[in-house]
Predict the structure.
Amino acid sequence: MTKYSPKSQKIIGEAMRKYKHGKLKSGSSGKTVKSRKQAIAIGISEARQEGNKTPGKEQ
């Protein structure tokens, strides 16, 4: 399992809560997120933008 910093875990958790309540929006199009994987990816992306420890991007 990949390790995240506590701050990253909090950001990802917030994204998941928004997803579960149907309030998480996609960045560019503004559509509601319907996929669990997409919600996690948005949370990781937000954590990465803040400079928190997250796993590297897979290629």
